[in-house]
Design goal:
Layout: H1 2-11, H2 24-29, H3 34-52, H4 57-72, H5 75-89, H6 94-102, H7 108-130, H8 136-154, H9 165-169, H10 176-187, H11 192-215, H12 221-242
Length: about 240
């Protein structure tokens, strides 16, 4: 079960401790469990919403969004911020873009992008809660975290020595498509909203992956985090508008 605990420790801030440093092979196999971590996050959000009961919708949306960010520790928001700064400040140059991503400071573009994304997520959450579609809280993080292994499976990793290098090098390429396919089928239990969510997520994935390949020749940990956040936001907005 070590790969499961690695995935849980990396993608969340839940109190998980590994007894020893994982091997590169274990890091690679942890990608098989990314969808299940997303499912767990979704179930925690749904449970939290049930505990909030009949409190005001806007208050529920704010608390759930804060919990959502807290569970992940803002890991993917950090990737979005770095990517936003780099994409604008890189002026189309590959090396300049990569260099800006490594800068821990956040510029005004990063702040604006984060504020807008969180505002859109908050509004979409409030709409879903108002319509009684709370079970869809399970679907969104589950779907988004299923795309991270897919991105690493289909896209070159361009940051030598970066966080994702060992993941890509030891990625279980034969097993991963079956795991992702099984999770995709399981999501269809949500009915037509799941199919709509998959279509939107696929469109965003294809578009952002093309941008990454055009600018960088592949992906980095930061752009992977940015993809996850943008997919979550796009799916939330689509479901809020459609339900």
């Amino acid at each position: 079960m070590t790969p499961w605990w690695i995935a849980l420790q990396f993608l969340t801030r839940l109190p998980v401790r590994l007894r020893a440093m994982p091997t590169p092979e274990q890091n690679g196999r942890s990608l098989l469990f990314y969808p299940l971590v997303g499912l767990l996050i979704g179930l925690l959000l749904f449970a939290a919403q049930c505990l909030l009961g009949d409190s005001a919708v806007l208050l529920q949306a704010a608390l759930l969004l804060a919990l959502w960010v807290g569970i992940s520790g803002g890991l993917h928001l950090d990737g979005l911020a770095d990517s936003a700064d780099a994409w604008v400040g890189g002026f189309g140059d590959r090396q300049r873009t990569l260099d800006i991503m490594k800068d821990p400071r956040s510029g005004p573009i990063a702040v604006v992008v984060l504020v807008l994304l969180l505002l859109l997520k908050f509004a979409a959450l409030a709409t879903l809660l108002e319509n009684g579609s709370t079970l869809l809280l399970v679907l969104v993080p589950w779907l988004a975290r299923s795309l991270l292994p897919l991105l690493l499976l289909t896209t070159p990793y361009v940051r030598p020595g970066g966080l994702g290098q060992s993941l890509v090098e030891y990625l279980p390429r034969q097993q991963l498509p079956w795991v992702l396919g099984a999770n995709a089928l399981a999501m269809l239990l949500f009915g037509w909203p799941a199919l709509l969510a998959w279509l939107v997520a696929a469109a965003v994935f294809i578009y952002l992956r093309a941008l990454m390949c055009q600018r960088l020749g592949g992906t980095t940990g930061d752009t992977a985090g940015a993809l996850l956040e943008i997919v979550e936001c796009a799916v939330l907005l689509t479901l809020a508008l459609a339900i």
